[in-house]
Amino acid sequence: MLLTLTCYAPNAPDIGYLLGKNPASVFERPFSGGKVWAFYPDVADDHVTVAMLTEIDPIGLVRGPAPLTQLGHYINDRPYVASSLTSVALNTAFGSALAGRATSHSERLSERMRWEVSVGVVACEAGEEFMTRLFAPLGYAVTTTRLPLDLRFSAWGQADLYALKLDGSQTVREVLSHLYVLLPVLDNSKHYYVGEEETAKLLAHGGVWLAAHPERELIAKRYLRYKRPLVQSTLERLAESDPALREAEAQAEESAAATEVAPEPVEATPGLHEQRLNTVMAAIRAVGAHSLVDLGCGEGRLLSLALTERSLTRILGMDVSPVALARAGRRLHVESMAPMQRARIQLTQGSLLYRDGRLRDFDVAALVEVIEHLDTSRLSAMERVVFQHARPQRVIVTTPNREYNVRWEAIGEQRLRHRDHRFEWTRAECQAWAERVAATYGYRWTWQGIGPEDAAVGAPSQMVIFDGNPGAGDANEGEGNEGDATAGKETLA
Ligand code: SAH
Questions:
Q1: CA distance 473 to 439
Q2: How far is the CA of 297 from the centre of ligand 1 (A)?
Q3: Which of 84, 100, 228, 371, by CA, is between 20 and 30 Å from 151?
Q4: Phi, psi angle pair for 137, to nearest 5°
């Protein structure tokens, strides 16, 4: 499947910064459905064309977690048409831009530029007029060309396949999010199970423009595969005020940060992470926990230690990043686990910024090197999700001690250890935070350093253990209109 986007704007090669892809090189990356390439066939001062090519592995899809039972098993149209796989590929290639972020030239993110989009083949049983109904209200001139079933046999007639061209003035994020949401809507089938996360994705990428779209109901229905409770809650949330949408958009930014494959943190103390994980495990063991939820479990290093702990009979790993979760699955060999072992552990995608009934009823929640990946403005949402709604008996948090950075030449005083860290705390800052959270939510706290202790700046890492009464939080919260936190239901915190 080939998708091209031509952008007309002054200093057009800057678009490369906004898309996070260098015009001089070819981007290539595998994703869950196959492989995606992004490259620039045409670069000039006043326009650039960026192309996204996907190669889908139809056999792999059949073997995947959600087999395409409704399509021919081994012969299907998936490799050739735009679909939900195209959206996954768009997110793989242009995740930051889709979330409205750029590492450079970010002042141009809000600039409306003229875009010509060409989608090689769209499968749309609802016809040409339907495509216009979706894209025209967003400000595009829409051109569709119906394609014959087979070029060599005109008698066979036409297919429900179209070449789609769009022409409109949009910001980078708008054009990408329109395609991300609407291509699967045209195609009207999904290659994976549609659950709660889809609502979050739809709100995150559709949010602002979808709320004003005359066909929002139809879009939500088709995007969410006619699952009535999901459609209903999406439409309600779209009708709600802007804060919910802003939160959803912010969540998309978080997840974009997390889906990019993050480099290893700069930690010049060998084995520090291992030591940190062992310290956390010792704390879990010390309280005789039977259940553990690892929030921001990443690639599953703590989970793999937890599995060796017999007394832990229920383990849940949650992360916002599907890439990290896939790695965790491989690290833990989830696919080939013996049934008894398999019954102990679950991996799930979710965000710490949303209340989530699945996080309730755990003895211990661990957040190992996670909070520093959240914007400080979002910390309070995380605090409510963890300490008020999930409310485990104990919460174990680790985070870097910024004071120690001066001991590492590679970092120095000013810089942080990882490019995705939004902050790093001194020991005093960490303790002040612990004190405030504990006082707000009715927990007690203890603090300790992790790693070699330096007389002046302390240890490189720090840990807080919160100890409280499970279940005491939600019952008497008085926040009114946030919706209920019934089991499994994801609600904005
Ligand atoms: N706990 C793991 C990974 C730490 S890296 C370990 O110690 O090895 C931070 C992790 O937090 C990443 O995997 C990232 O995807 C996850 N993360 C970032 N923002 C998140 C959010 N809002 N909700 C859940 N996980 C998040």
A1: 13
A2: 6
A3: 84
A4: -65, -15
Pairing of strands 345-349, 314-319: parallel
Q: Where are the beta strands (DSSP E) in 99-197?
A: 113-123, 140-148, 158-170
Burial grade of 447 (CB within 10 A; 0-12, 13-18, 19 or more): middle
> In Å, what is the CA distance from 228 to each residue of 196, 204, 208, 491?
12, 19, 22, 17
Ligand 1 close to Cβ of residue 351 (< 6 A)? yes
Positive/negative CA dihedral, 177, 179, 185, 189 = negative
Nearest residue to 255 (alpha-carbon basis) of 376, 110, 420, 396: 420
Please name the residues in contact with 80: beta carbons below 8 A apart, sequence gap of 6 or more: 1, 120, 121
- For residue 69, give every residue at least 6 positions away whose Cβ sits within 8 Å of its Cβ, in sequence order, or none: none
User: Distance, CA 220 to ligand 1 centroid (Å)?
Assistant: 29
**Measuring from atom 3 of ligand 1, which residue has the nearest CA?**
298
**Conformation bin of residue 73: beta by default, left when phi > 0, alpha when psi is -120 to 50:** alpha
Q: Give the pLDDT score at 93.
A: 94
At 390 the pLDDT is 95
Cβ of 317 below 6 Å from ligand 1:
no
- Encoding tokens for residue 38? 């992004």
Does an H or E element contain 27, and which? strand 27-31
DSSP 458: B
- Residue-wise pLDDT for 11-29, tens only, equals 999 999 999 999 999 999 9
Give the separation between CA 115 and CA 168, rounded to whole angstroms: 5
Cα of 361 vs its chain's centroid, Å: 25
Q: How far apart are CA 187 and CA 205, in angstroms?
A: 18
Q: In the chain, what are the domain boundaries?
A: 2-192, 272-468
Task: Report which ligand 1 atom has the smallest distance to the Cα of 369.
Answer: 4
Q: Could you tell me which CATH class the domain 272-468 is placed in? A: alpha beta
Q: Please report where in the chains the tokens 């394609």 appear, as a residue.
A: 147
Mean pLDDT of the chain: 83
**2-192 has which fold?**
c-terminal autoproteolytic domain of nucleoporin nup98 (3.30.1610)
| Kind and range of the H or E run holding 462 | strand 461-468
- Token pair, residue 245, equals 């949408």
**Could you give the CA distance from residue 267 to residue 461 in angstroms, rounded to a whole number?**
10
Give the ligand 1 atom nearest the CA of 367: 1
Q: Are 49 and 4 in contact (CB under 8 A)?
A: yes
**Which amino acid residue places its CA nearest to atom 11 of ligand 1?**
296
pTM summary value: 0.52
Atom of ligand 1 nearest to the CA of 321: 15
What are the DSSP calls for 42-60, one per residue? EE-SSEEEEEEEEEE-HHH
478 pLDDT above the threshold of 60: no
19 lines ligand 1 (CB under 6 A): no
